[in-house]
């Protein structure tokens, strides 16, 4: 692509791109130019998830330099007792594009760049609201809005809190799944529970009549200027002394964390007012605990009586089923609508390589078949609750290009008597891929979406080049789609309809 641009010049290069890769996988340059694509999709019963796909074209050296710099506190990254190495930056994997083809990647430069990314997301909300007639969704990546160090440290806090709970109560899993009460906690701590600092900790625990929901008052991270260094402390069961679960953070970094939360909160607030739904994308496992925690707090705040925020779950991870069950319970106990996008995942090769190099347990499923089984198990668990005894306000997007998975989801809908227009299940595929799945779903009355990237030609080249690279391997697997395309080309030539353009008159669910 770079060589072609040098040879033919920018103007001709853009024309060639629009007739090939760009035209296939990207809807247009701005919210006005993408309108024909969005309206054409709508005419065949298909809605849109807009994604402003602009990326910086950084070298590997520059990406690594930025990531390492933005992942370490100015206070240093010294070894501490209980530290989890998975949640610390590793030079060899600092370029997060390594072995990742389909997911967009943001590298932190400064707070001004995060503000610029927020403005781009806000413009996308305007585009969704103006074009999709309140049926559209928008994708957001949290790493675009803040310093990665803060997501790493918050993720480590969450996982260390789980280890602490395991130490106190035995078993595995996070705080919520232990079903312990504050009284249980007081018994575990014995005479230490009477200490003023321990009693102060107990008062801040989030709990209900069924027991402890969270060790920390997570709602405070959205509601006020929460001091991270002071907040994430737990009483030592042996000494009763309060110990920190988070490595040291400077006052400036505390401010950066509040800025990140302010940005995502503002985006969702604007989206809620514009009747646009936000899908927060999944990212690497070392960021994901923090991303999911923030996402669930946003759901608790905004998903009251309707869906505004959706989380993303990657089923190539072994623990995804347990995470989903826990989050479903939290949604029920804290009374908010729970929305999820279920995907196989984009980071499996990178995660395996990183786990092997750094010496921690591989978080991914051992095979493609195990990932599919995980996807189906998660889907069945969610849909089984829709009409069950503990009926909840649930919404799920089945984001898959796998025909068998789509058929499985439709069969589950029939088994559980979930109608396509009940706003429970929707389906999603990427623009330019697997149209033979998306369009029949939309035309059959199911809620079907295309993930629609857009942006200026030159600025989406990093995304496009990875998409082209991904398809080089992907095309080997889609014999059916290639066969259907060739069959249609042959039909058009034989019937003299070489430039035939179908017209739809469907109305999306």
From TrEMBL:
Its cofactor is FAD. Belongs to the proline oxidase family. Its EC number is 1.5.5.2. This is Proline dehydrogenase. It comes from Pieris macdunnoughi. GO terms for cellular component: mitochondrion. InterPro entries: FAD-linked_oxidoreductase-like, Proline_DH_dom, Proline_oxidase. It is an enzyme of class 1 (oxidoreductase). GO terms for biological process: L-proline catabolic process to L-glutamate.
């Amino acid at each position: 692509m770079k060589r072609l641009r040098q040879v033919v010049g920018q103007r001709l290069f853009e024309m060639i791109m629009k007739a090939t890769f760009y035209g296939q996988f990207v809807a247009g340059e701005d919210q006005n130019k993408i309108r024909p694509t969005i309206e054409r999709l709508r005419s065949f019963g298909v809605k849109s998830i807009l994604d402003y796909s602009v990326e910086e074209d950084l070298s590997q050296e520059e990406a690594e330099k930025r990531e390492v710099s933005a992942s370490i506190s100015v206070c240093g990254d010294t070894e501490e007792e209980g530290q989890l190495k998975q949640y610390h930056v590793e030079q060899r994997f600092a370029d997060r594009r390594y072995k990742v083809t389909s997911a967009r990647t943001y590298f932190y430069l400064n707070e001004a760049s995060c503000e610029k990314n927020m403005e781009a997301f806000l413009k996308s909300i305007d585009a969704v609201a103006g074009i999709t007639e309140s049926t559209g969704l928008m994708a957001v990546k949290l790493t675009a809005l803040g310093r990665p160090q803060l997501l790493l440290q918050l993720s480590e806090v969450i996982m260390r809190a789980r280890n602490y709970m395991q130490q106190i109560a035995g078993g595995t899993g996070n705080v919520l799944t232990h079903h312990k009460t504050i009284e249980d906690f007081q018994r575990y701590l014995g005479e230490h529970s009477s200490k003023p600092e321990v009693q102060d900790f107990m008062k801040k625990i989030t709990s209900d009549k069924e027991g402890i929901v969270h060790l920390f008052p997570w709602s405070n991270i959205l509601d006020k200027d929460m001091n991270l260094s002071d907040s994430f402390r737990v009483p030592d069961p042996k000494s009763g002394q309060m110990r920190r679960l988070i490595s040291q953070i400077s006052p400036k970094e505390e401010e950066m964390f509040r800025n990140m939360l302010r940005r995502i909160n503002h985006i969702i607030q604007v989206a809620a007012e514009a009747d646009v739904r936000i899908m927060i994308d999944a990212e690497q496992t070392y960021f994901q605990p923090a991303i999911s925690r923030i996402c669930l707090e946003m759901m608790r705040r905004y998903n009251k009586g309707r869906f505004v925020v959706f989380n993303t779950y990657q089923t190539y991870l072994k623990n995804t089923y347990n995470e989903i069950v826990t989050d479903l319970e939290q949604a029920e106990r804290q009374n908010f609508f729970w929305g999820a996008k279920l995907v196989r995942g984009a980071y499996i090769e990178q995660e395996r390589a990183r786990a092997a190099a750094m010496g921690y347990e591989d978080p991914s499923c051992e095979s493609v078949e195990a990932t599919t089984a995980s996807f189906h198990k998660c889907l069945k668990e969610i849909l089984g609750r829709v009409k069950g005894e503990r009926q909840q306000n649930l919404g799920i997007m089945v984001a898959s290009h796998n025909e068998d998975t789509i058929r499985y989801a439709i069969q589950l809908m029939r088994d559980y008597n979930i109608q396509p227009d009940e706003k429970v299940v929707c389906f999603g595929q990427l623009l330019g891929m697997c149209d033979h799945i998306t369009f029949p779903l939309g035309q059959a009355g199911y809620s079907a979406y295309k993930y629609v990237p857009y942006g200026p030609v030159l600025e989406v080249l990093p995304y496009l080049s990875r998409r082209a690279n991904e398809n080089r391997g992907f095309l080997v697997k889609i014999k059916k789609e290639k066969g259907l395309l060739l069959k249609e080309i042959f039909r058009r030539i034989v019937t003299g309809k070489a430039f035939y353009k179908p017209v739809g008159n469907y109305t999306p669910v």
